[in-house]
Inverse folding.
């Protein structure tokens, strides 16, 4: 393993902290505009909400473990799934991915910060406030049933259930405002990331030399503009309906329930890609390093990512196959949805080809990537089943769908995120995460995952709709649900080991050095953790793998690109 | 009460299922569930079933191929003890290979798309037969109203329809809308689900071959008791269906000479708020907010399938429906024991 050349010229000029350390540290984090600190705050904030939404999931699984259970009341159950879904999408998924993007993108393109550092801080704090606002509803909203109740209209909040007459009180308003504010924060960060990528690349880093992670964040953030804006607009329309007498979605006054569905899903489906593209991004960086090979088919990977971005904007009504849009509309959306499997397939094949002929090292990040590959494959294939509209007439809104999208969100995105944590933790903290605990985490989590989400498909095939707080014993769903709930417990144990590993490795982990994985992108050329200015001397690159060129001057990538 | 009928899968389908399915799915096929989507009992459910078999076979083949290659690559190209420190050969890509794994999936997609389009058109874009039975379905929080416009029948929660077979095709068309929020009508063994949306009329059809009871439930979250908005479809032979219709067309029974409790109950009912929400034909009770009770005693269940229709359950329901179905919109009536007994006696007479 050759060593990386690092310029630490002005590193010694860093001044030691002065004054009372705890106060200074808090002040420094509250007022920071440093992309790395903001990225870490995004990640920490998302992890807190991940634990909260995880507890909500556990409570739901206890309730559903056996038929006719009375562990929680119907209204509490309805609040649990609403909060679980809203939290996981808006306050775990988006912030954690923005967090990694914030941290990594300037480092990977050889920049010293984001294009708009203050906008960056603003976006983070707005999003953070939105999450606390949502949970304040437990104290502040007089909802459907009593004072202080969380939203219970479901995370897609279909009209007209959200109308004042069906959802009196303020719980729905807390939901609306929280999603609205989170949307403002997301659009701000997306704008920032796109600008940074377009304007702040170091010398020599043409678009065609950007790491794939950067490309995928470019597509993801462009999608955020197009998709989060309609949702944010729809939240304003809903608030107008509820308080100012407009009738966009108010069916009792001639409004349209289907209009809300369009608004929601023109956001909702591309949102899946907003969440999964960064997962692709992590895998794109990690698989080559642990296969010791360059990514196979870089141009095809870029084309597929951009293609997915565009096609994902034309598939939203596959969430509405049962709405009665008619045979022509259904047929169109079947086609659009099936077509998206082509670029997605290209990605899987390119990852396979990257591994092919390599020298695969099964460190924890790679193991999570392997889990990602198999699970994303299955999720894509169940997606094809759901894309066949008539099959969807049976499967839609059943537990099969719940299993399908959790295969994407957990099996693909969360696994890729775990891989990213293990991979970049040494860069962020200067310490390695424990491999032993990492393996325990991986095996417990993957076993729990498959117990839960493989078996969750079955009650859906047996006719179990989602969002029911209990079910009859004679439906034949009981045993399957019990297995699903047991798997949830195993996953929870794995997750706790991960959190413990995060904390204890910070204090006791092995020192990582600059480049523990012998990797090839620019972030590994800075110290770990990187100094505030990232690079003492702004780098210049000649290929997609600048550190490969440095390590192999006899055989640089720049000769082949 | 009729029990549900078990799946009648012909041997060809069973064989295909055994060949195509993962063990997991095979266990589903044999699972005892009255709502199994792989036990179709009407034409729409059958055509979905056939399409699903094709899609499952194709996706299983893709899964085995790709997962097999992945597994092989991971094992074959793993780092071994004693490997040299040299990096493997760096391969940057190949246009021919990229082209092949673009074109082959495109062909698979086109094949699946055309097959799917055929089933969509065959279910949603075919003309309605002249002799089809029309039923108006109205979704309510949290129960179903069924009106038979041609037959003058109004009922709730338990849908009766005639069977239909090749010799005498007699499909039932459901014209569906909602009185309040969005619902979805789903009886898995008969057809896929169709949403029931306010300000909009959606249509679906079904033609069960065999008489029997088919279960389902609301499949779109509609509020607190979404879970207990159950559906019961009774498919009946033409003779049984005709008998049911002629019985349901009768006005509600009145004047119970030999049953003083029932006649007292009728008086209590007509003098209480019951009539604001419930209708009993032939009486002053014409409310439409709750289910029509003209022939309540002819139904197997109350509370939209939540509980069995027994006098004890009915009495408990009238006393406080929320104790049996929390969140249901009928308020507790706060009647004294005598009135409760009387109303129960009256309603159990409404056959």
């Amino acid at each position: 393993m050759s060593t990386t050349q690092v310029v630490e010229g002005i590193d010694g000029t860093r001044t030691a902290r002065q004054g009372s350390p705890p106060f200074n540290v808090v002040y420094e984090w509250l007022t920071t505009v440093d992309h790395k600190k903001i990225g870490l705050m995004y990640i920490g904030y998302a992890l807190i909400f991940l634990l909260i939404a995880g507890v909500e999931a556990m409570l739901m699984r206890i309730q559903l473990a056996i038929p006719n259970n009375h562990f929680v009341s119907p209204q509490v159950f309805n609040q649990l799934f609403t909060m679980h879904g809203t939290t996981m999408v808006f306050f775990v998924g988006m912030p954690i991915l923005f967090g990694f993007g914030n941290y990594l993108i300037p480092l990977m393109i050889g920049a010293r910060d984001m294009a708009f550092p203050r906008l960056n801080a603003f976006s983070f704090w707005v999003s953070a406030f939105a999450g606390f606002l949502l949970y304040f509803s437990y104290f502040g909203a007089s909802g459907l049933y009593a004072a202080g109740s969380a939203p219970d209209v479901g995370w897609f909040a279909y009209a007209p259930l959200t109308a004042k007459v069906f959802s009196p009180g303020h719980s729905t308003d807390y939901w609306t405002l929280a999603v609205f504010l989170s949307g403002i924060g997301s659009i701000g960060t997306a704008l920032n990331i796109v600008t940074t990528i377009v304007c702040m690349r170091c010398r020599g880093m043409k678009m065609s030399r950007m790491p794939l992670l950067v490309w995928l964040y470019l597509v993801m953030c462009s999608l955020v503009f197009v998709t989060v804006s309609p949702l944010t607009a729809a939240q304003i329309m809903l608030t107008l309906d509820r308080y100012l007498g407009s009738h966009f979605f108010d069916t009792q006054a001639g409004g349209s329930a289907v209009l809300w569905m369009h608004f929601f899903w023109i956001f909702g489906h591309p949102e899946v890609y907003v969440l999964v593209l960064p997962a692709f991004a992590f895998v794109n960086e990690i698989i080559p390093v642990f296969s010791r090979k360059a990514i196979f088919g870089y141009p095809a990977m870029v084309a597929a990512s951009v293609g997915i971005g565009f096609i994902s904007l034309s598939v939203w009504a596959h969430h509405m196959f049962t709405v009665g849009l008619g045979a022509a509309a259904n047929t169109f959306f079947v086609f659009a949805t099936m077509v998206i499997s082509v670029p997605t397939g290209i990605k899987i094949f390119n990852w396979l080809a990257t591994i092919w002929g390599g020298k695969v090292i099964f460190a924890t990040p790679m193991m999570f990537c392997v889990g990602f590959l198999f699970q994303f494959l299955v999720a894509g294939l169940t997606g094809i089943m759901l894309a066949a509209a008539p099959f969807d007439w049976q499967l839609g809104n059943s537990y099969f769908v719940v299993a399908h999208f959790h295969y994407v969100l957990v099996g693909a995105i969360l696994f890729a995120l775990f891989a990213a944590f293990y991979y970049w933790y040494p860069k962020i903290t200067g310490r390695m995460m424990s491999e032993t605990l990492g393996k325990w985490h991986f095996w417990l989590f993957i076993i729990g995952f498959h117990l839960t989400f493989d078996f969750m498909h079955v009650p859906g095939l047996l006719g179990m709709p989602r969002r029911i707080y209990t079910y009859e014993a004679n439906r034949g769903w009981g045993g399957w649900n019990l297995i699903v709930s047991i798997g949830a417990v195993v996953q929870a144990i794995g997750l706790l080991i991960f959190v413990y590993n995060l904390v204890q490795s910070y204090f006791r982990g092995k020192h990582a050095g600059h480049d523990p994985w012998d990797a090839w992108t620019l972030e590994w050329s800075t110290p770990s953790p990187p100094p505030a200015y990232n690079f003492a001397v702004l780098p210049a690159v000649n290929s997609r793998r600048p550190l490969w060129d440095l390590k192999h001057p006899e055989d640089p990538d720049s000769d082949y690109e | 009460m009729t029990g549900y009928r078990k799946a009648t899968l012909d041997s060809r389908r069973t064989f295909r299922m055994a060949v195509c399915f993962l063990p997991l799915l095979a266990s589903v096929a044999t699972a005892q569930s009255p709502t199994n989507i792989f036990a179709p009992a009407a034409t729409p459910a059958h055509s979905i079933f056939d399409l699903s078999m094709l899609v499952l076979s194709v996706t299983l083949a893709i899964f085995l191929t790709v997962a097999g290659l992945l597994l092989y690559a991971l094992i074959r190209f793993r780092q071994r003890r004693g490997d040299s420190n040299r990096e493997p050969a760096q391969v940057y890509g190949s246009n021919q290979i990229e082209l092949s794994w673009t074109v082959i999936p495109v062909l698979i997609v086109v094949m699946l798309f055309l097959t799917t389009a055929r089933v969509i058109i065959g279910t949603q874009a075919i003309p309605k037969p002249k002799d089809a039975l029309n039923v108006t379905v109205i979704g309510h929080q949290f129960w179903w109203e069924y009106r038979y416009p041609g037959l003058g029948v109004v009922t709730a929660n338990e849908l009766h329809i005639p069977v239909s077979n090749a010799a005498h095709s007699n499909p039932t068309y459901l014209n569906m809308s909602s009185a309040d929020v969005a619902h979805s009508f789903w009886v898995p063994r008969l057809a896929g689900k169709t949403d029931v949306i306010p300000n909009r009329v959606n249509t679906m059809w079904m033609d069960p071959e065999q008489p029997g009871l088919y279960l389902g439930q609301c499949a779109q979250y509609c509020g607190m008791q979404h879970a207990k908005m159950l559906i019961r479809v009774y498919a009946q032979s033409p003779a049984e269906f005709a008998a049911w219709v002629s019985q349901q067309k009768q006005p509600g029974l009145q004047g119970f000479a030999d049953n003083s409790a029932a006649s007292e109950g009728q008086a209590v009912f007509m003098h209480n708020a019951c009539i604001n929400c419930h209708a009993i034909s032939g009486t002053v009770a014409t409310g439409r907010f709750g289910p029509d009770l003209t022939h309540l005693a002819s139904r197997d269940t109350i509370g939209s399938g939540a509980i069995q229709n027994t006098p004890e359950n009915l009495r408990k329901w009238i006393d406080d429906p929320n104790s049996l179905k929390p969140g249901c919109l009928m308020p507790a009536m706060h009647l004294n024991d005598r009135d409760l007994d009387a109303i129960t006696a009256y309603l159990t007479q409404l056959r």
